[in-house]
Specification:
The chain has 110 residues and is mostly beta strands. Helices cover 10% and strands 48% of the residues. The chain is built from 1 helix and 6 strands; from the N terminus they run H-E-E-E-E-E-E. It has a 3-stranded antiparallel sheet, with helices on one face. A 3-stranded mixed sheet has the order 3-4-6, with no helix packed on it.
């Protein structure tokens, strides 16, 4: 989602709580399920991520949402700002209830 479409409660309550971690989590806001993927603290600008796919899987233990995210590192020969960053991405789903678990599958762009 573009930053101006991210629910305020996610920006104010969820992102600050989880920005230091590399993980995926779900949030139920106004009857909609959102998925948040965070990369943790990074020493410079240039780190990015995107959600490639989300797959809801059912098992005897409940439901699991497998979230595949592509993590991009800054190119070695690129000038980047020397500032601590906390990359994250938020996606709106069509789900109405949170899954029992959420699994982050990280892929790194070479």
């Amino acid at each position: 989602l573009p930053n101006d479409k991210i629910p305020r409660t996610i920006e104010e309550d969820v992102i600050p709580e989880y920005r230091d971690l590399e993980r995926a989590l779900g949030c139920l806001v106004d009857g909609k399920v959102y998925v948040v993927v965070t990369r943790g603290e990074k020493p410079t600008a240039g780190y990015d991520l995107s959600i490639e796919k989300m797959k809801l899987e059912k098992s005897k233990d409940g439901t699991n949402l497998a979230v595949t995210a592509l993590f991009t590192e800054p190119a070695a020969d690129t000038a980047v700002s020397q500032i601590i960053t906390y990359p994250y991405v938020v996606a709106e789903t069509e789900m109405e209830t949170l899954p029992d678990t959420i699994e982050l599958i990280a892929r790194y762009n070479d």
